[in-house]
Design a protein that fits this description.
DUF2721 domain-containing protein; rod-shaped; 4 helices; single chain; transmembrane helix; transmembrane
């Protein structure tokens, strides 16, 4: 398959939007961690803290991987475009394929993180149900 410069350029807006979404997730998670920290200091007997801490650590790791793979995909896309400018078409094909794989893995981690965050919300809901 012969790539032209417009093919990898199609990934730029997609990757940029994904990185923005990942950053928003990270900021939301940071806010949750700070809130949980305050709740723990106010009430040392707050039960779901241990479960939440484990969950939040897992989610932080997932978001770090998502962001790293998103940035890697972006870098590979730029490198692919450079290879196309230098008329290194075979190298460009491999770089573009690697960029797509990195983007795919980033999305897989995103899906897993969504599942974990849903679990975290269920922990909060069960705590509230217990108090009813």
């Amino acid at each position: 398959m012969q790539l032209d410069i417009s093919t990898p350029a199609l990934l730029f807006p997609a990757i940029t939007l994904l990185l923005l979404a990942y950053t928003n997730r990270f900021l939301g998670l940071a806010s949750l961690i700070r809130d949980l920290h305050n709740r723990h200091h106010q009430d040392q007997n707050y039960q779901p803290v241990v479960e939440q801490i484990k969950n939040l650590r897992t989610r932080l790791g997932m978001i770090r991987r998502m962001q790293a793979l998103g940035v890697l995909s972006f870098l590979l896309t730029v490198t692919c475009m450079i290879a196309l400018f230098q008329k290194s078409y075979e190298v460009a094909n491999y770089l573009f394929g690697a960029a797509l794989v990195a983007l795919l893995l980033s999305l897989v981690f995103s899906l897993i993180e969504i599942q974990i965050s849903t679990k975290a919300l269920n922990i909060e809901l069960s705590d509230m149900e217990d108090k009813l």
